[in-house]
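INTERNAL TRANSFER SHEET
From: sequence group
To: structure group
Subject: Cell division protein FtsI/penicillin-binding protein 2

Please process the attached sequence and return the structure record in the designated field. Keep the field labels unchanged so the import script can parse them.
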Amino acid sequence: MTPTPNQAQLRRDRPLCHRMMFITCFLTLCFSGVLWRLYDLHLKKGPALAEEAAKKFREDRVLPAQRGSIKDHSDRYLAYDEEVYELRTDRVHLHDVRSVLPNLARIRGVSQKELTRTLTPEEILKTYHVHVAEALSSKMGVPVETMLEKVTSKRPIEVLTQNMNDDQGKEWRQHLENLFVKGIYVKPAVRRHYPTDNRLALIIGGLEEGKGGVQGIERTFEDTLRGVPGSVCVEHDKYGRELLLYRGEIKEPVHGKDVHLTVDLQMQDAVDAIVAQAQATYRPNKIMAIVTEVATGSILAMSFLPGHDRAQPDTTNWKNLTINEPYEPGSTFKVVAFTAALDQRKLNADENFDCHWGLYTDPVLKATLRDVSKMGTVPAREAFAKSSNIATYKVFKRVGQDTYLDYVKRFGFGKKTGIALSGESRGYINDGDWSNTTYSRFPMGYEVNVTPLQMAMAYGAIANGGILMKPRLVDRIVSDGGRQVTPVPPQTVGQVCTGKTAAMMRELLQGVVEHGTGSRAQVEGIQVAGKTGTSQRYDHELIVGKNKDGSLRKGGYRKDQWITSFAGFAPANDPKIVCVVVLDNPQAPDPADIGGGKVAAPIFAEIVAETLKQLSVRPQRPLALEGGAE
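Return from structure group:
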């Protein structure tokens, strides 16, 4: 049967149809694949991919809050943030051929086309990195190899130098521009500046990157000084350049508040100078001096040596010796027994005490007490002025252990004062079982440890009508550019004794200076009240014998080393300031010249005279020197 023309045509077109069907199916499958891929990317993986892209080209940039300043009482800066400049590498630009190519072409004096024709991308980068390293090396005086390591580092940023001032920053910008260097930038930064250097270093404190304040006021008032950072969402291109058109909403930072101290820098400098001179003269292991305001408990000056060196943080002293270096106070502690006895009406300042000419053995405890001043029967006020151990012991016995310990605690001994600084010591008082030695030594300032600050606050209570104040180191908090001021008011801790008892103790302490062991604490034209202290120095390493097992027994009082001190206030009739001076193991050609009355008292007098002068306290009367025994 002969095929029709249509059938013949169909047979001829069949391969073409097959091809068309194949192509159609293939295109359908491809289109379906594309649709499926689009579905997968946009609907299933779309959110995740969008988030990944956002992370790559979008960031929430932190807007740092400016840290508040620390100032002294007279608005002098002690710590503040200052704008400086850093020299940094930028890995994105340094490792992108298209970014460095124009500059390298300018350096070589050829076209970019010529460079890409003669050098591979790796060679372009290597050549440019060497040029940058040489440009940095020539100005910084650092080997080229060292700079090359920084330039080729895989870290996003390498900081090459820090803390440049404005002129140095401009100079570096010009240097980089002249040498066609791209990928090295001068960026603004912030550093904490301490204009007083090592003065007040442990009171002001310091910062540690990533941790904030680590010492002093910087640590205690971290939350106040730090502020709250702001933020802004920014987008950038693949070279890291910000696309300003797409900048998001800005959340402004809340800057930190300024902390104003009670310390006056001029007064602190004066006390530091006196302490430094005393250190040079007497060469003690340690020396501490503290000045406080009677009415408020405010700290006016804190000085001690050895001090802190900011330049050598690994080897320097990190202890504020006025608050965390307890010592045995010796006779300055006798105020507790006399205050307790007067307050409990178990003592009259004018009644007589037999001091047994300087040698007395308690018939019950079999404990022997000695006095430097050999006296017979004298009034209590004279026995106190001449620092009689025997009279103090008899006064203590009238009070009794429990009542006495109550007054020890009322004065604030054995617990932290609560000053706004970290690391404060509570000292030590034995409020448990007492040995016979404790009974005869505790009232004289042995077997008890106090800090200079605790002693200053205790004497401040006597000067303040019997009211114990909490030490006040911060005067006010200032924010909003000075428009908002929040005072930090004085705080009372408690009533140590009655105002009448405090007045009598002020009279007794004035007697110590005017005709007792503290005569060298006198200040011309000013009535001064205070008490000397001299105690044997306890040495934990001193070998005092052997134990039953033959091992060495260590720990005892050295007969050739002393702690000397003076605590007092002025003017005696209207107290304004308290001052405490402590020297640990002072040196003198004659061992008889290292007592509190001969070493610490003159230092006290010098500090008090200078402090009252700065406070504009006028002299009240001519100086009347009356000698007293050490």
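Handover comment: Residues 623-630 have pLDDT under 50 and may be disordered. Residues 5-44 form the longest helix (40 residues).
Transfer complete.
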